[in-house]
Amino acid sequence: MNRTISVLGLLAMMTGCFKGEKVDLIIHNAIIHTMNDGGDVFEAIAIKDGKILQVGPEREILNRYRGEIEINAGKKDVYPGLHDAHGHIFGEVYQRLQVDLVGSSSYYDMLLRLEKFAGKNQPSILIGRGWDQGLWGESELPTNKLLNERFPDLPVVLIRVDGHAMLLNDLAMRMAGIDSETRVEGGQVVIKDGSPSGVILDQAMDLMQVHMASPDRATIKQKITEIQSDLLAYGITHVHEAGISIDQLEILLELDAEGLLQIQVYAMLFLNDDNLGYAEKNGFIDQGNVHVRGFKLLLDGALGSRGACLIHPYADAMNEHGLLLTSMADLQRLTKKALALDFQVNTHCIGDSANRILLRHYDTLLTNVVDHRWRIEHAQVIHEDDFQWFSKTGVIPSVQPTHAASDQRWIKERLGTDRMKTAYAYKTLLNERGMLALGTDFPVESYNPFGTIHAAVQRKTLDGEPQGGFQIEEALTLEETMRGMTIWAAFACFEEHRVGSLEKGKDATFTIFEYPIRSTLNYEPNGANETFIRGKKVY
Ligand SMILES: [Zn+2]
To answer: For 386, which of 59, 182, 250, 340 is 20 to 30 Å away at the CA?
Structure first.
């Protein structure tokens, strides 16, 4: 009797290979990191109608299913499609349309790049982006002296790498109507030896911005699709767009309606009265690959231009505390309105004062609000007493490990030894809140996720600086880093029911990577071998 059953069983198994359930796609002989709660790793995955039917052991999947397409992954690593939890697609668009100053090694190098571009393109206004005087070995912001000498007849506007400062030549200053008397709330015209140095900070940049013509829609769309291809080549399938206007949102919605947007964009609208009105009228947006249910707010500036708001003065500028870009009254009013609409608010806080103000405000505002998922973007300098507020308020830290690696070059000078210890403290933040969303802030840093892995785990730049890693006790493990770019990031944008892990019923959005995902002392380049979104190969 027993013998009969086993023969029948064997027969069923043998015919199973031929009669298995038909599915669209099978990936097998892979190392599939599901990123589920148990951290399960399997060999094979079956996909139908863009969804995951099952993830499991090689034999089980191959016995049970027959794929229209079957891919032998040759033991390559497979992860859920990566998120960049803080990026600026439109910033990247402008970066690509303007003179690329990222990585310029000196003022002269910057001038050289400008001259080359101006000679080739003959612009009516020369716009560059990405300078960082830290790379020139200077801690002080530059002046426009050399710029005026080289460009006496062409207005020049050069945006700092962090987007919080501009260097203008005198002609551009005149165009914007800026002189030594100009005062702007939430901004500054930097004065040196009694006259404007050419540098303007934060809200003062609006004076110039209105004179800078925006590129046409077709050009912007074209650039977005180019950027998208580059993201997919890294295995990035989701971008949390950290602050856009309604105009920009409409461009994304158009691209999506035209079927040209493949990556998913979680777009945060800037938190202001107009956009609150828009949100009230339209509610959450869930159109194809564009999702909107959150706002972005800027509470302070950046450390590089001394705009980050600190409790105690800057170590290298004894009279400066930085700037609050939003008043307390506006902060309270705007966040309350957003909460009433059930929208998430993600606030840029860099300095310990900005972080403290926001966390304390939330301790009242968000009491009894279940599952709000409100975030602090950057959470860069936190007073040691204030980490506890992350667990208390439930606010999710959204951080960019590459900032730690880049800023360590000058951060000691700016913050001083003591305060530096609780800056870029990702492990401490993780221990407090139990999760982190990881991003890059591109175009401030490259969107290369392997740069993020290297910076998070080794706490180093791509060239291996500093040796031994910057405040290595704040390093994340590889597992934590990958969670920060997958399931935790998905949670931080309310998408974990669809993406972020490879589990039955979720979208078949994942990447097969070229080389093993690992972290070693030296940076190793990597990229996608193939990227899939909802079961469709997109790279
Ligand atoms: Zn940003």
So the answer is: 340
C-alpha of residue 427 to centroid of ligand 1, in Å: 21
CA of 43 to the centre of ligand 1 (A): 37
Q: How far is the CA of 472 from the centre of ligand 1 (A)?
A: 24
- Residue 487 DSSP SS3: helix
- Cβ-defined contacts of 455-461 (< 8 Å, 24+): 455/401, 455/402, 455/404, 455/405, 456/401, 456/426, 456/480, 456/481, 456/484, 457/481, 457/519, 458/519, 458/520, 458/521, 458/523, 459/401, 459/404, 459/405, 459/408, 460/405, 460/523, 461/405, 461/406
Tell me the CA–centroid distance for residue 518 and ligand 1, in Å.
27
Of 501, 478, 477, 473, the C-alpha closest to 489 is: 501
Q: Percent of the chain, pLDDT > 70?
A: 96
Q: Please give the model's pTM, rounded to 2 decimal places.
A: 0.86
Which uninterrupted H or E stretch holds 226?
A: helix 217-233
SS3 392: helix
What is the residue type of 9?
Answer: G
Query: pLDDT band at 476, cuts 50/70/90?
Result: very high
Q: Separation of 64 CA from ligand 1 center, angstroms?
A: 46
Q: What is the pLDDT of residues 511-532, one digit of tens each?
A: 999 999 999 999 999 999 999 9
Specify the DSSP class assigned to residue 135.
G
